[in-house]
Design brief:
Blueprint (H helix, E strand, L loop, with lengths): L2 H19 L5 H11 L1
């Protein structure tokens, strides 16, 4: 497994963890947050 794939897996897991915790935020704000993280 190369570093790029590993980082993508960790990023997906992190988003799965953040999604329920950010449920009280508007979806548009959540999308802008994800865009800023890239």
């Amino acid at each position: 497994m190369n570093l790029h794939v590993a980082r993508n897996l960790l990023t997906v897991r992190r988003h799965d963890w953040l999604r329920p915790h950010l449920a009280w935020l508007p979806s548009s704000l959540y999308r802008s947050y994800l865009a800023l993280r890239k």
